[in-house]
Amino acid sequence: MIAQGTRFTQAIAPMPRTTPAFATMFTGLWPHEHGSREVGDAIGPDVTTFASILSQAGYTTAAVSANNSAGPKQALDRGFQSFISGDDLKERYAGRLYRDRTNVPPSGVGWGEATTDEALRLAAAASTDQPLLLWTLYFDPHFFYRPPSPWQDDLAGNSCFALYDALMTGKVSCGEVLDARVPLAADALDDCRELYRTEVEYTDAQIGRLLEGLEELGRLDNAIIVFTADHGENLGEGGLHYEHGENVHDAGLRVPLAFVGPGVAEGRTDDGAVGLIDVMPTLLEQLGLEARPTSGVDLGPRLDLERRDGATDTRRALFAESASGFCGDSHRLLTTGRMEGRSCIRNDGHAYCVDSQTGAQTLFDIRSDPRMRVDLAASKPDIVAELEEAFARWPPETARERTVRTPHYKLVQRPLFEGGYHSELYDLRADPEEAMDVSAQHAELATRLGALIEEWAAGMGPMQQRELDEELLEDLRALGYVE
């Protein structure tokens, strides 16, 4: 199906986390504009969504989101007349849905199968007298990588399953897994990659079943199909394993993006810079609806061969930032966020943490006590004072990587302990692993991109404090991300 349309090879998310990414796709706004700057954060009450516009234009609007961080709590159901959430799927398929923290065997109903079934049910129930907007979000593939049977049947003995068990039972910690500080986490990488690939294949089959079902219902006649994702997955890239969001490496930042439908050129690829931020303005134009002010652009000239001349701007720049680190005992990051009830900042040898509720201070020697169990704050006041000062420079969740990206080059800025950022420029064609800084060779470009990212970041303002969502925390605990 995707081969029948136009595929963008350099599309990126504004942040490699679910809620902010989809919020940007639905609004055409940057995370600091729509209000969701971390997984679970709701968009602002006055933000207009794509579904709201289509609902007002006479469309039937329906959605199935298997991921609870993209649903009603985040106001991503705004404008949808029917919305089935991850919690709804759990309730409807109780005792039959194969997922973590249950005794349902792999032969049970998989997440993707349930998602497809419910999407087809909503499409069948929708009136054929109205055009239909159907959004379907699949939760697979996602850590833990557990495709149902028969997809996992040939992978028995896979060491990635042993890693899951060790994480769930506390034999290894979240930070030890994400940093691959223990042999089990490092040695399981190839097997985890295989499971991840298998989950992609399983999801691909379910999307194929969805398209076949929609075709049988006559819903693909004259339809526009958009295929994309909210983020990728880091499997060792940038030092991050089995996760996404904590850095701006392309492994987590780049996403698939393809358009299929009337007026869309078939069988071609576009290598220019685009983002999820462009989806809403593009679809409004394609559907002949009134354009709304957004920070994205209409990709229509790059979808239509007749308007193709000069459409790909090789100088266009796209922006993104990383999210916060979940694991307090992950030592790759300058800071970790408040998901486990405390925020921490670290230097080469120590981590200083502040309880987000009580303000209590703790200090850990991360060389001798990497799991951060023994509080040394009382015995090392000088180190506490030094790190307390750094903590004031980087309030919770502000020490994030940020990037500006063209089709060929990428400037990444990483926060420094002493304040400010260290910048590196990567030539993505010659160095897709983002390992070699070429700022010296391309000083003028690095300066230009640095000025662009400073201008973009200037509009962000301070991070908004928020109450932690206990259900989200429970989901993260189940994955071993918080304790």
What does this structure look like?
The structure is a single chain. With 483 residues, the chain is an alpha+beta fold. The chain has two domains: 312 residues, Alkaline Phosphatase, subunit A, CATH 3.40.720.10; 78 residues, Arylsulfatase, C-terminal domain. The chain is 30% helix and 17% strand. The strands form five sheets. Strands 5-8-1-9 form a four-stranded mixed beta sheet, with no helix packed on it. It has a four-stranded antiparallel beta sheet with strand order 10-15-16-17, with helices on one face. A four-stranded antiparallel beta sheet has the order 11-12-13-14, with helices on one face. It is globular. The model has no long low-confidence stretch (mean pLDDT 92).
- Number of helices in the DSSP assignment: 15
How can the largest sheet be summarized? 4 strands, mixed
**Corresponding CATH architecture of the largest domain:** 3-Layer(aba) Sandwich
Low-confidence stretches: none
Overall tally of structural domains? 2
* Sequence of strands across the biggest β-sheet: 5-8-1-9
Determine the N-to-C terminus distance: 43 Å
- Mean pLDDT, to the nearest integer, reads 92
Integer-rounded radius of gyration: 23 Å
Under CATH, the topology of the largest domain can be stated as Alkaline Phosphatase, subunit A
CATH class of the largest domain: Alpha Beta
Percentage of residues in strands: 15-25%
The CATH superfamily of the largest domain turns out to be: Alkaline Phosphatase, subunit A
Given helix and strand content, the structural type is alpha+beta
E-strand count? 17
Shape: globular
**Fraction of helical residues:** 25-40%
